[in-house]
């Protein structure tokens, strides 16, 4: 038995060719988006680790999909970052409570810089997707992975 | 765009990844040029919903920029990108409550392909026309059967199609979020399902 997922099947090749023959050209605007993605790379920022995504929980055994609310929890060094998204707002919570600089980044540059209050909370208008949240903590700057929708 | 002579799309993937990790935009640009078609094909195989297809394409590149320093084997980046793209499509389909299946061949598919456009543009003798017609019909039959698969099977087969070189089972398991022991049986089950669907489409073999 091989230890690799090898596409050794004629049927797999046939499927590949079926899609290849009518594959539309990549729109220039999408190629540009791919090129511009590099500007969002931040080697000096640590990636917060996803601990919880309500979308994953809701999908288990629940008919239908999509939700007007979504929650995330991330480990950011010794702190925990919570995000609660609705159609109109996003609540950011830092635990333990800290007043820190928080940047909302969207790939269309529609985000902004804010500060959590002394309870570690912040309420902003719901950002567009894809978006991520970057926070300056005493131990360094952390960013959530991109939330794409 | 300023071209950096040090990097070109034909360079070794390890060189391009290393260059991008060193914050050289030209290396990233070469990576995109080299591999964007892998991502594009993955999202097109997974869905015909143009919004989701485009958003998943964009999200995949954001994800690579974010995770570039976690790429352990640059040679397997095509597989990583294909798998990530299929994951993004599935996530978006669920979040937006869309049906995974899009428009049929011959409909208002933004691909601009399909039999009608093919017949309008075919060059050559009648024999060439006939050969192309048969090939086009076969491709359409395969695509129709493929889009009748559940999105889990479409994902597994899409990853199979686009991972060159192949992903190791442990890597595929991690990226697909499936137990390592389930990959072989799942692949077998999905291909068998595809064969059955093709038979229903009148496939001659």
Describe this structure in words.
- The complex is a heterodimer of chains A (149) and B (205).
- With 149 residues, chain A is an alpha+beta fold.
- Chain A has a domain of 100 residues: Immunoglobulin-like (Sandwich).
- Chain A is 17% helix and 36% strand.
- Chain A is built from 3 helices and 10 strands; from the N terminus they run H-H-E-E-H-E-E-E-E-E-E-E-E.
- Chain A has a 5-stranded mixed beta sheet with strand order 1-10-9-6-7, with no helix packed on it. In chain A, strands 2-3-4-5-8 form a 5-stranded antiparallel beta sheet.
- In chain A, a hairpin with a 2-residue loop joins strand 9 and strand 10.
- Chain A is elongated and about 60 Å long.
- By secondary structure, chain B is mainly alpha-helical.
- Chain B has one domain: Rna Polymerase Sigma Factor, Chain: A, CATH 1.10.1740.
- Chain B has 9 helices and no strands.
- In chain B, helix 2 runs antiparallel to helix 3 and helix 6 packs across helix 9.
- The longest helix of chain B is centred in the first third of the chain and has 22 residues.
- Chain B is globular, with a radius of gyration of 19 Å.
- The termini of chain B are far apart.
- Classes of the chains: A alpha+beta (149), B mainly alpha (205).
- Chains A and B meet through helix 1 and helix 2 of A and helix 2, helix 3, helix 4, helix 6 and helix 7 of B.
List the helices and strands and how they pair.
The complex is a heterodimer of chains A (149) and B (205).
Chain A: H1 10-20, H2 28-36, E1 46-47, E2 49-53, H3 54-58, E3 70-76, E4 79-85, E5 89-95, E6 101-106, E7 112-115, E8 121-125, E9 131-137, E10 140-143
Parallel strand pairs in A: 1-10
Antiparallel strand pairs in A: 2-3, 3-4, 4-5, 5-8, 6-7, 6-9, 9-10
Chain B: H1 13-21, H2 25-46, H3 50-67, H4 77-95, H5 115-121, H6 126-146, H7 151-162, H8 169-176, H9 180-200
